[in-house]
Predict the 3D structure of the following.
Amino acid sequence: MRFCFLMLCALSFTGCDKEPVTEDTLITRGRELFRSLQFSSDGKTSCVTCHPEGHTDNRNWHFAAIHDTTAGIPDSFRTITLWGIAQTGSPYLWKNSFRSLESVTRLYTDTIMGGTASEDEVAALVAYQRSLAFPKNPNLADNGQLTEAQARGKSIYEDPNRGNCAPCHPAPTYGSPIPKNIYTGGTFRTVGLRGLYSIAPYFHNGSAKTLHEVIEHYAGNGLIAPLTAQERDDLVEYLKTL
């Protein structure tokens, strides 16, 4: 009986000397994996290939495993930034209805890159992605005060009779989980506008090279009211502060 009791005590304390896994530990491990080539079937690709510093490479990609081909032309999609992903939330891709960051992460490590990630590795990668925040916006004053042009642009953004942007792009993420058809070739995720100054080209296919082209597209398709040249300039100035 004494032997059994001692064995039970020993088993109860097995592994007690193991360091607990903290959030900081997960993030550090996730950062290492994010930069690692270990999931790449050809040994040339890592997460930073498309997401340098967790941001976007501003390129379009076609992944045969998840993207279609339309009229013989492979569909390609612009890389979405991972900055602020903990706040923007799901869905996580332009067209697919992935609601879990874990499932999207495994899609890329196992299906697109051709590797095999363990549950612990996926958890670490997710923790790192959730830690990514937007840096200070160089277009916004330190005190958050808008310039006159930016303030005029904000008024246009919120005005239902002019820009009318807020219903689909409300603060604080300036995005929405509800997909929309904005006449760019289908119905796609309404991405957040945070960091807009740094993610050109725009739309799922990168078809708008500048914010002025985005506004022209919206006005030309009746999605917003026609704006004067000054109003377009002011709206662009505000969009760059988001």
About this structure: The chain has two domains: 23-131, 148-241. Strands lie at 60-61, 69-70, 73-74, 77-78, 176-181, 187-190. Residues 1-17 have pLDDT under 50 and may be disordered. The domain at 23-131 is CATH 1.10.760.10 (Cytochrome Bc1 Complex; Chain D, domain 2).
